[in-house]
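Please produce the structure of this protein holding fructose -6-phosphate.
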Amino acid sequence: MCGIIGIVGNSSVQERLIDSLKRLEYRGYDSAGVAGMVDGKLQRRRAKGKIRALEDVLADAPLNATVGIGHTRWATHGAPSEANAHPHKSGRVSLVHNGIIENFAELKRELEAQGRVFESQTDTEVIAQLLDSELDKGLEPLAALKATLDRLTGAYALAVLIEGEDELVMGARRGSPLVVGYGEGEMFIGSDALAVGPFTNKIAYLEEGDYVAIDHATARIFDETGKAVERKTQVVSASAALVEKGNYRHFMEKEIHDQPEGCQRTIAAYVDALSDTTTIPGDIDFTKLDRIQIVACGTAYIAGLLGKYMIEQLAGLPVDVEIASEFRYRNPAISAQSLAIAISQSGETADTLAALRHCKAAGMKSAALVNAVQSTIAREADVVWPIHCGPEIGVASTKAFTAQVSLLTTLAVAAARARGRIDAAEENRLVRVLLEAPRLMAESINLEEAVRNIALEVSKARDVLYLGRGPMYPLALEGALKLKEISYIHAEGYAAGELKHGPIALVDEATPIVILAPFDSYFEKSASNMSEVMARGGQVIFITDPDGARHAPAGAKVVVTAPKCDPLIAPLVMSAPIQLLAYYVAVQKGADVDQPRNLAKSVTVE
Ligand code: F6R
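Below is the modeled complex.
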């Protein structure tokens, strides 16, 4: 996770770049840098460490520029060092980047074959080199940027300077956010409203695939096809910028869309993308553990269930997952050789905290898998494993859930490797699969329109059943929980194999049945369950992948086709359709999506 800023100003931009980077420091702080146009030439200053170190560099060598860009970094590719710090430079180009370029190795090989020499280990430098090579072909800056973006796979928000273009900063976004700030004869781009907050409160949120050119007075915005577009401007309060809804109607909708970035940041924090290995802090010896005990509530508990499926499957390490309010009072059998993991978005849930204390008192080592790193659960656990999805405001948890699942999946890979259940090559493969997840999740969010079309029908139902097998079973529980908490429709998640043991009695023409079934080893069984409910008049909403859609029995009311992916990341990729379904049903019913009745974001009483 990195923070970026770009300014076309009327006066020196150095102080404003630094001010903005300090506001963005929550996004990462292992190196920082700025670049500017000085007498028509690009100059840059960079430093390892926090912004303070960059300020020291600038005190010795000020950057006397009125047009500039800046970056604060959270390392993904390449260690935190000055050489890997942004801005990166190649020929006429200097740029800053937030995100991960998945095909950087392939592009780098291609550029090196053309004789280009790289000075860093970052994926970002590939973008600078590629853009410079497009300029060398004689393309204008915007055309060169478009040609470059067309070659990139992965996630990015960019701010770009071109030597010889004294009044131009270009930007682009895909998978990582970017806003445009409109000032008085000055223009800005930045990672979020907070970045440009001190300079202007009039901003526009760019949409997926957009790119932009700003000068003193205007922003020319283009969509991914190169068509000039308008993006709505809005006035935001800078102090509230951290909790802005952007272009979205509700925080929940925004947070569903935030998920690829949240997962990307979370995964990046626990893998080394250069060596494709996992790095789990906390000195946990997975070979010495007899068990993992997960305690959590609500959606965090469901994330824990998914963790159990992953960890037991990959690492062969037993995992117990228990609802914290049950665990704390029932005198569970505890072993001091087990590791306790408390999962909590807020880090303040009273039952989860009590369960964690119970584990600690029994002599277990403990880890806190939290979003709020200053929280009580984080403070009391021996090890803190933060998720990095940013503040979650909507009461119904979405982006914290997928970030928790990302982290638990990474943990499963690490434990499997440590316990010798997979070799180094398989670890490398699984890490690469994990790194693909954000892109595929973004594709899955694109199913929004298809899901919205089902919402009217589902909003009329009294009961909805969710069925799944394997990891799709916890996801069925999550789908049902999301629907009931925000739309107030009664919903149940079931292991599909349980259908004949009771819930099939609920099936009639008025009951929508959501079946989650990618084309995996469970598919045939799930398809049989689908036939069974359709034979009894059930209205099936079948959420699957392209192969599953081809092999599904005919007769589903709706088939929603998520992108094909490795089974490791299927729970991440399949999450958006069920979240969006709950969201649009609630909107259809006119419910208070972000603050459903009777609920609170943080349950600090039992
Ligand atoms: C459901 C939801 C809740 C929380 C639960 C635990 O959408 O948000 O079920 O997951 O209250 O909260 P945390 O994770 O803060 O401990």
